[in-house]
Amino acid sequence: MKIGILSAGGDCPGINATIRGVGKAAITYGMEVVGILDGFSGLLFNDYLPLDERSLSGILTLGGTILGTSREKPFKKKEGDMIADKPQFIKQNAEKMGFDCIVCIGGNGTQKTAAQLSEMGMNVIGIPKTIDNDVWGTDVTFGFDTAVNIATEAIDRLHSTANSHKRVMVIELMGHHAGWIALYAGLAGGGDVILIPELPYNIDRVNEELLARSCKGKPYSIVVVAEGIKTGKKSDTAGAYIAEQIEKATKLETRVNVPGYTLRGGSPSPLDRIIATRMGTYAASLINKCDFGRMVAIHHNEMTSVPLAEVGGKTRLVPSDFFLIKQAKKIGTCFG
Ligand code: F6P
Question: Which of 12, 45, 47, 176 has its CA 20 to 30 A from that of 37?
Answer without folding.
Answer: 176
